[in-house]
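Sequence only, no structure available. Ideas?
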Amino acid sequence: MSRRPEDAGRRGQLVRESARLFREKGYEGTSVRDIAAATGLQSGSWVYHFKTKQDILATVMEEGLQQALERIEAIGREDLPPRQIFRALLRTHLDTLLGPGQDFIPVLLYEWRSLEAPGRRRVVELQKRYEKVWDEVLGRLQRCGDWAGPTRLDRLFMFGALNWVAQWYRPGGTLDAAEIATEAERFFLRTPAFTGRRRGSKVAAKTTARAKRGRASKNN
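Reply:
I predicted one. Tokens follow.
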């Protein structure tokens, strides 16, 4: 039986607000009352959409991965040089981590231990599809000489570096997501140093400008 539009809208709101709360307060620190209050639901009425808080957590992770998969699988099908594919994947991955309201994947990264076995199995299948796209582009990069022969650890190192950005990134800081993606490409593919100097000059210019503004405000 199909859901009524208003039910689907309320379910989507519940998932989004739960993702935000899980990211801000942690899964264990978020109560069902917190979720109900954030969505305007009466305590207990959220069970119309989900049986347990575990079901909500699994859905947050699944929906985050599904959204990301739609984007990166479309990129992987494009007839583009490997470097361009890799560049687009980096940007998309960072957008998924850092974009406004993008709480789903950070919840997956930092609340994975809270997910119980039934939900974990479904999420793992989606993760495998996500990783397959990256494995294919790494293979293409290796064949054209832009990546040393991939090992089973390469992807782990790469995702470890990319995912940690969510810990230190601050909106409105020196770098935005697009600039971080460019720096990530330079780092992973060892782009010639002159590209790094151009990027470094841009970052340095921003830093200098901010410092000058700070000194001017002190002198006024």
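The chain has nine helices and no strands.
Hope that gets you unstuck.
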